[in-house]
Design a protein that fits this description.
The structure is a single chain. The protein is an alpha/beta fold. The protein is 36% helix and 17% strand. The chain contains eight helices and eight strands; from the N terminus they run E-H-E-H-E-H-E-H-E-H-E-H-E-H-E-H. An eight-stranded parallel sheet has the order 7-6-5-4-3-2-1-8. It is globular and about 45 Å long.
């Protein structure tokens, strides 16, 4: 699946992409998505790929058809609770910090393996796979080991669950070909589709954005 990363892109750009045949879009901020999605074509389908704060889960459940960035048991539990209130199941991916970077969100692999069965038992959660944001590198070969580690971790998770996990979300504009070679089923592409983002002036706000975007 090609997931077009729509962060900072106006609704007009989404409409143009939909006319060209792109259906799946990713957003990093709940607030931005809440303002943008109603202006976009109704047939567009939306995944959340940023860091999700617990106080924004209710809105995320209403806006998105998949949350790719579940990074804790507490967050998974809150998603399940809010989905129960909305009478809506939620497909999710578990975000894994395969490189152990202090600046990145995501489950440490060992903790994920310990808590995986508990997450899978949540009644409104549909666990569909794993996601990662590897360390930045200009040479895609340098991130290949991280993609491979996520693929190997998925195999371990499947053994624990006794069931397949269909998705690996990994790879962005600079390394998606390598990610596909290592088993990616979802690639998150922004710059290669829309061009460089226009960055807003002023200080960066660390709300619900994370490194899960292109």
């Amino acid at each position: 699946m090609l997931l077009a990363v729509a962060k900072t892109q106006p609704a007009a750009a989404i409409e143009e992409a939909v006319r060209a045949g792109q259906m799946f879009f990713g957003e990093n901020k709940v607030q931005e998505a809440g303002a943008k999605i109603p202006l976009c074509p109704g047939r567009a389908r939306w995944h959340f790929i940023g860091h999700l704060q617990s106080n924004k889960v209710r809105n995320a459940v209403a806006l998105f058809e998949m949350i790719q960035s579940v990074d804790s048991l507490a967050l998974a539990q809150e998603i399940s609770r809010r989905c129960g209130e909305a009478a809506k199941p939620m497909p999710v991916l578990i975000e894994v910090n395969v490189a152990g970077e202090a600046s990145k969100f995501g489950y440490p692999p060992e903790k994920l393996l310990a808590e995986l069965a508990t997450i899978a038992r949540l009644t409104r959660i549909e666990l569909q796979g794993l996601m990662t944001v590897p360390p930045y590198a200009t040479d895609a070969e340098k991130v290949r080991p991280h993609f491979r580690r996520l693929r190997e971790l998925k195999v371990q998770c499947q053994k624990i669950l006794g069931a397949p996990l269909p998705h690996l979300s990994m790879g962005m504009s600079g390394d998606f070909e390598t990610a596909i070679e290592e088993g990616a089923t979802i690639v998150r592409i922004g710059t290669a589709l829309f061009g460089p983002r226009q960055r807003s002036p002023g200080p960066k706000r660390d709300n619900d954005a994370a490194g899960a975007q292109d």
